Each structure stands twice: as structure tokens, then as C-alpha cells.
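Researcher: I'd like a candidate sequence for this fold, 464 residues long. If you have to choose between options at a position, lean toward the conservative one.
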């Protein structure tokens, strides 16, 4: 595949029209589809690019489509352009049995009439095509494949699709690399590439340095599509490890302490690599107003929150009072969505942080704003609480001991103990717990008691 390759799908409008009825059925069933609960009424084509000729025995089409959905799930509700999704569509005469789970459907009209289309990431050959494009630094239509020339990408690495992904898709190549392919995409600088690159320049060993990345130039804007990074073979994510240790009745405080040190080291490296700002009264008032607004919306959505609203609001009021007195805080780039599942422990015991995309539901510009490191700390404290309530076993004091050990480890590496700034930390933890209540009420009602127990504690100002 040459770097000057400019092949594109010339029958794009007809292609999308032929795929439309199949995608309307298939897309909402994917775990990474963000518009669940509202029917897909149509698509707009953003780009279509042939990576393998779709007229051949095996075709591969890269698509970026914008969904159209009603604003609310009600008959007759107005439609509006929705999210953009990246799709890799495989094209075959018929699917072999091993690819049956990847089936999208059989095309009955348009340029692919009579062919079968499927999610190509399940297939070895299409996944190899993507890796070869990254290895060779290809340019195909509006797609750009770039790499760090200091890192080697060997040929012959066998791909396999990981099945545990939620909001994106990941392919592991020969236990050497992992490609994270973003599914719901937006134009602009994505922190999932920006921050690991900055940390690599800063020499941080706590985040796998990007080996290669995939972008698109569409309508005069750059879109980040995927990132290839070294694969930590044999690693266990923090959530799985915590639940495993809980089930065995093992102590987890040593791991929590080490994880606190790793978090602090990443924060320190980010502060060296990217600008640090001071949050004055105006910015802090906006922060407090946002937290208060989210609480009010949550109380409206989940009435069970109403008895605790005054106590929860007091956490935000306390932060606003300090801002009014002239207190300031420093802010920097942070992970933005830190929890146990975003951390990997290698077989040698070293912790790494992954997935710097931030909360996907928030606008990209908001995810890239400098924030106090306490936001990440609060997210991890909430994650220990979730693990303690999710293990199915009773472990009195487990979460409290892990929370304390994590903060101790953070202080050892940064020189600043998050617990010495309780007003800021409580405000962020309260904001996170309120978010969790709404999420669980909508998606996992059986889990609602987990954040509600934190809400009761935070609303009564019990010691953290």
C-alpha cells in the first residue's frame, strides 16, 4: 500500500443508500452506540474510502456516517443530525461460519447488490490491512496513517478482536500492539492521542507511548480515528484485580497505594508537559454552578435523591465560599475519567494508566480543559467504593482502607495529600456520585444502591 494511494469509493451516495436499511437495524445493537432509546431515521455520509476494492472477493470500506435521530424517543419528534460513527465494513459473497457474529446483512440494492457486509474488525485480513497502513504511513483518500519512526511495527502479527470493549473497539496484534479504534468520533484534537503523546515526550513510563495513529482530514478538519500502542501482555485491569482480591479476602491496600503513586506521577508529568493555570473566583464560580446545575437535573430525573439534595448542595456551597474569600486552585490536564478499569497492572507489578479520552458524553472542548487533579482522585475513590459493593462479599472497611492507601501513595509521589484539601475533594466526589445515581437509574437500576450509599454519606458530611 503506497503512501500516495488515493483510492476512494466513487459510488458513495449509492453505497450508503444500499447500506441504510441494514445499518438502521445493526448499529443500535452495538454496545458502543450512544443513541440508544431513540430510533435511527437515516444517515448522512461524511466519507467513504475503499481500503480493499469492494468489487473483489474480499472488500473493505471505511465509512464515517452521521446518524439522524429524533431529539426525544416520541412519535413525531423532530429529527436532527446526531453523532458521527466510524465503521469498517467488510464485503464478501458469503460469510464463513467463524464470522457469523459480525454479520450486518445482505445487500439488496446499489453497488454491492448480492454481497454480504459485516463488521470487518472480526476478520483477520481487514485487520491486517489497517496495521499495514499504519506501518507504511499510508495516505488513502482523506485517511492519514502516521507512526513514531522510533518504534518498529513488525509484519506478520496475528490480529484478534477484544470482546470486552464498551465505547470503542480494540484489536490486539500478536500480543505486541493494541489498536483502539474510536467508534463515536468528533473533529478536533482527541485527548486519547494528545495526552499519551505528551506523556511520551515527558518520558513518563506510566502510559504506553503511541506507536502509530489514524486520522482523517474531512471538511477542513482533523478527526482522530484510532491509536496503536504497545500491548502490556499478561496485564490485569484494576477492576478485575480488585474484585479477584476481594473474592479471596485478600488485602488490596498495597496495590491501592502503588496506584496512588502512579496517578501522581502521571499528573506530575502532565503538569511538566502541558500548561498549568490558576482557577480564580470566576472560573470556580462556573465550576460550582455546573455542579449545582447537574444536581438539580439529577434530582428531577431521580426523585430518590431529593431528601439528600440540601446536604449535597452544601459541598458545592463550601467550595463557592472559599472562592469568594479569594482561595485559588491550580488546574492542569488530567485523565478525566479515572477509575480502576482504566488502570493496568503488569505481571511485574507496575501500574499503567490507559484510555485518556475522558467522558465521551461530554463535548471535546470541555474534555480538554485544565482541571484540578482532585477530579481524577475523586473518580478513583468512587471506584474503590464501587468495587467494595460489587464483589458480592462483605468486606467491612475495605473501601475506606483502599481510599486511604491510595491518597497516601499519591502524597508520596507528589508531595501533596489530596485529603489536605477536603472541600475540593468532597465537591468532586459529590459531583461524581450524583452522576452515578443518574447513570445507574437509567441503565442499571440494580446498581443504584451503590452510589446512593455514597450520597447518604456525602450528604451527612460523614468523614471520607
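Model: Candidate sequence:
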Amino acid at each position: 500500500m503506497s503512501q500516495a494511494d488515493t483510492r476512494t469509493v466513487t459510488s458513495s451516495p449509492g453505497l450508503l443508500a444500499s447500506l441504510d436499511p441494514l445499518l438502521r437495524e445493526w448499529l443500535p445493537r452495538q454496545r458502543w452506540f450512544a443513541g440508544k432509546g431513540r430510533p435511527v431515521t437515516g444517515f448522512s455520509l461524511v466519507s467513504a474510502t475503499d481500503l480493499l476494492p469492494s468489487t473483489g472477493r474480499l472488500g473493505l470500506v471505511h465509512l464515517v456516517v452521521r446518524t439522524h435521530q429524533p431529539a426525544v424517543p416520541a412519535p413525531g419528534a423532530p429529527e436532527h443530525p446526531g453523532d458521527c460513527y466510524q465503521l469498517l465494513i467488510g464485503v464478501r459473497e458469503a460469510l464463513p461460519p467463524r464470522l457469523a457474529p459480525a454479520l450486518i446483512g445482505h445487500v439488496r440494492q446499489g453497488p454491492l447488490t448480492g454481497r454480504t457486509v459485516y463488521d470487518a474488525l472480526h476478520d483477520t485480513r481487514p485487520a491486517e490491512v489497517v496495521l499495514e497502513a499504519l506501518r507504511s504511513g499510508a495516505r488513502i483518500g482523506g485517511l492519514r496513517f502516521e507512526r513514531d519512526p522510533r518504534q518498529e511495527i513488525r509484519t506478520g502479527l496475528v490480529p484478534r478482536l477484544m470482546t470486552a470493549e464498551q465505547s470503542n473497539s480494540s484489536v490486539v496484534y500478536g500480543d505486541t500492539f493494541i489498536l483502539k479504534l474510536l467508534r463515536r468520533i468528533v473533529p478536533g484534537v482527541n485527548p486519547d492521542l494528545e495526552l499519551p503523546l505528551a506523556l511520551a515526550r515527558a518520558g513518563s513510563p506510566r502510559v504506553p507511548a503511541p506507536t502509530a495513529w489514524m486520522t482523517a482530514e474531512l471538511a477542513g478538519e482533523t478527526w482522530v480515528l484510532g491509536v496503536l500502542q504497545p500491548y502490556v501482555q499478561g496485564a490485569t485491569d484494576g477492576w478485575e484485580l480488585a474484585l479477584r482480591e476481594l473474592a479471596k479476602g485478600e488485602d488490596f491496600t498495597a496495590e491501592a497505594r502503588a496506584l496512588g503513586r502512579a496517578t501522581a506521577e502521571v499528573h506530575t508529568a502532565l503538569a511538566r508537559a502541558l500548561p498549568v493555570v490558576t482557577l480564580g473566583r470566576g472560573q470556580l464560580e462556573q465550576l460550582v454552578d455546573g455542579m449545582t446545575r447537574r444536581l438539580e437535573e439529577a434530582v428531577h430525573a431521580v426523585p430518590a435523591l431529593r431528601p439528600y439534595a440540601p446536604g449535597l448542595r452544601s459541598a458545592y456551597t463550601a467550595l463557592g465560599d472559599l472562592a469568594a474569600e479569594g482561595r485559588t486552585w491550580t488546574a492542569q490536564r488530567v485523565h478525566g475519567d479515572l477509575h480502576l478499569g482504566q488502570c493496568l497492572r503488569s505481571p511485574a507489578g507496575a501500574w499503567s494508566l490507559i484510555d485518556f479520552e475522558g467522558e465521551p458524553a461530554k463535548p471535546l472542548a470541555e474534555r480538554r480543559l485544565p482541571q484540578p487533579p482532585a477530579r481524577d482522585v475523586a473518580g478513583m475513590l468512587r471506584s474503590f467504593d464501587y468495587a467494595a459493593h460489587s464483589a458480592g462479599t462483605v468486606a467491612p472497611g475495605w473501601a475506606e482502607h483502599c481510599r486511604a492507601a491510595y491518597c497516601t501513595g499519591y502524597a508520596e509521589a507528589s508531595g501533596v495529600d489530596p485529603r489536605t484539601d477536603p472541600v475540593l475533594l468532597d465537591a468532586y466526589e459529590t459531583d461524581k456520585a450524583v452522576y452515578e445515581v443518574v447513570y445507574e437509574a437509567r441503565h442499571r437500576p440494580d446498581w443504584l444502591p451503590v452510589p446512593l450509599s455514597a450520597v447518604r454519606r456525602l450528604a451527612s458530611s460523614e468523614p471520607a
